[in-house]
Design brief:
43% helix, five-stranded antiparallel β-sheet, 327 residues, 12 strands
Length: 327
């Protein structure tokens, strides 16, 4: 097998890759598949084309790559915009905090220069108590508004980080059926996802525990995403009546696609929560796609039924935000 790199066009930032392999008996002619190569700061999207060259003893695979923005930068900018929308006056508060810190520091500096002059001149000794009071006020103002600024900045960074993780989650892919793959974001406003992540035995037991609540969960727009973290397959057996089997399959119809991306996202969530990486967990999402609840162990199906409003009836749309607070 030979691997050859072509030149890079500086104007279009296009990379050409040629891969030469011995011909295969069942090589598919003109078959196309998509690949993604990730660099340090640029993500390249590739389309690979297979060409069957009958007259030659080799088959050639040609890849081309075009410059494309990094997904992480897109997510970061989107998260910042959402953060500004959710907290529109935070930037104003932080600006005034900085202004008050500068004002207090300037006042304290002026008071210190006056104190030096008063100490050098005995006739101004009576002014020293007032000057010290001014210095104390300036230092207190600087300390207070600096504390408020750093607290606000910490809350801003935490919110942006949470929104970035939610954007990363929204870009993960789900398989609805054999022919349809959608991103998680496509289900915003449609379904409340519950992600069950753990070994096959954990997913199987979660499946069994959800059986008595199938109707109620579907009425509340709940759909389950089983994510198996070991090499085994969960035993999802449907032994009920035909109608109930259909609803059970609908509740558990989604399946993660691109397992590596799902694993990275879940590992990051566990790391931030201080949960061991091998612990089985569940995550419950709101109708708007934000995380409303999570924990170690089996999903609390009965609590979900009790807390979530139905998606049908006269209250449709009015109670969509009553999904619980955002974590």
């Amino acid at each position: 097998m030979a691997l050859a790199f072509g030149s890079v066009n500086p104007n279009s930032n296009t990379l050409c890759l040629t891969l030469t392999t011995p011909p295969l008996n069942n090589l598919i002619t003109n078959h196309r598949t998509n690949f993604v190569f990730c660099g340090r700061s640029v993500s390249y999207g590739h389309t690979m084309s297979y060409s069957d060259q009958r007259a030659s003893s080799f088959a050639t695979v040609v890849c081309s790559a075009a410059n494309k923005p990094s997904p992480s930068s897109e997510i970061s900018s989107t998260a910042k915009i959402r953060s500004e929308v959710l907290s529109p006056f935070r930037s104003v508060r932080m600006f005034f905090y900085i202004a008050f810190v500068a004002s207090g520091a300037l006042g304290a500096f002026i008071a210190i220069t006056q104190l030096i002059g008063a100490l050098a001149n005995s006739s101004r000794a009576s002014e020293i108590p007032d000057i010290l009071k001014g210095i104390g006020i300036g230092i207190a103002a600087v300390s207070l508004f600096a504390f408020l600024y750093f607290r606000e900045n910490k809350a801003k960074n935490a919110q942006v980080a949470r929104l970035s993780r939610e954007e990363s989650l929204s870009n993960l892919k789900l398989r609805v059926d054999e022919k349809k793959i959608i991103p998680v974001s496509s289900l915003r406003g449609i379904a409340r996802l519950v992600i069950c992540a753990g070994p096959a035995s954990f997913v199987t037991e979660s499946f069994k525990r959800s059986e008595p609540f199938t109707e109620s969960l579907l009425d509340r727009g709940v759909l389950v995403v089983p994510f198996v973290t070991d090499a085994n397959s969960p035993a999802l057996e449907f032994e009920e009546t035909e109608e109930l089997v259909s609803r059970r399959k609908r509740l558990w119809q989604l399946a993660p696609v691109y397992i590596t991306e799902w694993s990275e996202w879940l590992d990051e969530q566990k790391r931030l929560a201080g949960v061991p990486s091998d612990s089985p967990v569940y995550l419950s999402l709101r109708m708007d796609g934000r995380v409303r609840g999570s924990g170690v162990g089996y999903p609390p199906w009965n609590a979900l039924v009790a807390q979530l409003p139905q998606v049908k009836g006269i209250w449709t749309g009015l109670l969509d935000g009553m999904d619980g607070r955002v974590l």
